């Protein structure tokens, strides 16, 4: 059972990270996992009709942050200390981006998570090939 459920996490993010909704919408959470969806629009595209790297990194970051909070609770000052992303294929410009995040390890001071990004309207579990994969480390305040 997650420390924070979907409703509690959405409320926490609205209060402490109100700009976060520009990076996607939280669709579901579990203990140490989160799924987010970004409705891709013109502001997320780069020349050539591809979703920009910064848009994909922001979605990945917020998704892992949400997954982390399901384990540690409402800790506003947990911050990203490392983000590594591999862009695997060009995402569709006219489709949502879906982030499927999960925590790999949650310690007292550091947490490591991963996220797969998918392009399309289907749920992440139904999508075929990821467009990106990222690993993130978060520093947890004492």
TrEMBL record:
Keywords: Hydrolase. It comes from the Bacteria. Signal peptide: none annotated. GO terms for molecular function: 1,4-dihydroxy-2-naphthoyl-CoA thioesterase activity. InterPro entries: HotDog_dom_sf, PAAI_dom, Thioestr_dom. It holds the Pfam family 4HBT. Residues 48-121 form the Thioesterase domain. GO terms for cellular component: cytosol. PANTHER family: 1,4-DIHYDROXY-2-NAPHTHOYL-COA THIOESTERASE 1 (PTHR43240), BLL4964 PROTEIN (PTHR43240:SF10). This is Phenylacetic acid degradation protein. It comes from Marinobacterium aestuarii.
